[in-house]
Design a protein that fits this description.
mainly beta; Elongation Factor Tu (Ef-tu), domain 3; 2 domains; ribosome biogenesis
């Protein structure tokens, strides 16, 4: 796939019997994928034109030109939709970035240690996270906040990451230790009544 195209949305299940589908957009404005003209599939062999779209919860119910029944809509399930990179508007603020520009960049600690590569920027509902995959190890996440990600240098291909300190996972005095049971009748200070 060409790097001059950007993944903008993914088609989900059919919605109703008149050719509508559920679309999961990837962007701040859920209806913005409608503004870029024809959308292409990953292989570039198919172009879809949005006929209508409306918000419904976390999805956008969408009708594409030429998709007029449930069977045709079901055939679209799972397709990724792309737009040309140059169709995206220029960003006004130097502190704004398209997520796609951060993918593959090197994540480094304040002391210059390489932490891994940025592989995704998911949002599971509590805010955007930066997924960092160290070489040969499992991914880890940091919040995409100014505190955790204070500097992004696209030209150098590096992102400064301040990994938040872990919370103390040791049990507190009033918490049962491994193998120890707690009296469910205990009041707030841990004494059984």
């Amino acid at each position: 796939m060409s790097e001059d195209r950007i993944l903008i949305a993914r088609i989900g299940a059919a919605h109703g019997v008149r050719g509508e589908v559920r679309v999961k957009p990837f962007g701040d404005d859920p209806l913005s994928f409608c503004d870029y003209g024809p959308l292409e599939t990953a292989d570039g062999k198919r172009r879809l034109v949005v006929k209508s779209a409306r918000l419904q919860k976390a999805m956008v119910v969408t009708r594409f030109e030429g998709i007029d029944d449930r069977n045709a809509a079901e055939a679209l399930n799972g397709l990724d939709l792309y737009i040309p990179r140059d169709a995206l508007p220029e960003l006004d603020d130097e502190d704004e970035f398209y997520h796609t520009d951060l993918l593959g960049l090197e994540a480094v600690s304040p002391d210059g240690e390489t932490l891994g590569k940025i592989v995704a920027l998911p949002d599971f509902g509590a805010g955007t996270l930066v997924e960092i995959r160290p070489e040969g190890a499992a991914s880890f996440y940091v919040p995409f906040t100014r505190e955790a990600v204070p500097e992004i240098d696209l030209a150098a291909g590096k992102v400064l990451i301040v990994v938040p300190e872990s919370t103390d996972a040791e049990p507190q005095d009033d918490e049962p230790q491994d193998g120890e049971e707690r009296d469910p009748r205990a009041d707030d200070d841990g004494a059984a009544g």
